[in-house]
Amino acid sequence: MDHRIADVVRDVVGAHGLDLDDLTLGGGQRRLLRIVVDADGGVDLDALGPVSREISAAIDEDPEASRAVGDGPFTLEVTSRGTDRPLTLPRHWQRNVGRLVAVTPVDGDRFAGRVVGADDDAATLTVAKVDRRVPYSEIRTAVVQVELNRKDA
Length: 153
Fold this sequence. Notes:
Strand 5 and strand 6 form a beta hairpin. Helix 1 (3-15) crosses helix 2 (48-61), helix 1 packs across helix 3 (63-69) and helix 2 crosses helix 3. The chain contains 4 helices and 8 strands. With 153 residues, it is α+β, with helices and mostly antiparallel strands. It has helices at residues 3-15, 48-61, 63-69, 90-94, and strands at residues 19-26, 31-38, 74-80, 100-105, 111-118, 122-127, 130-135, 139-144. The radius of gyration is 18 Å and the shape is elongated. Helices cover 25% and strands 36% of the residues. The strands form 2 sheets. It has a 5-stranded antiparallel β-sheet with strand order 7-6-5-4-8.
């Protein structure tokens, strides 16, 4: 992936107060440019239409980015992180304070806990009523758990 596409996209989403979370360009007959965005307080899905149009225009106007996407048509998809994407950065943890998270550690058994804090090095989760500080380096994967009927909310 040419970094010019990411630079162009990052500028547009940043102007809207969003973070570029992921960007992928799939090959094939009809290419798909998938852009995942995130923000403090969540993403206003109504804002994604204008952001998508601005990204498309910015890529069209930038010769390097346009060349990197390739000749011919492509599909542009702009979406929010959703709950199924793994927590991989400190900001993901910070934005999910209060949420239940399933953690698969590098060593040991999988566990679930409620995120009560996060900084640049570790997340603090309440696991079985005990706060546990877990360094990110000790986490293989972590995913937010959807709670449909949370009793303590």
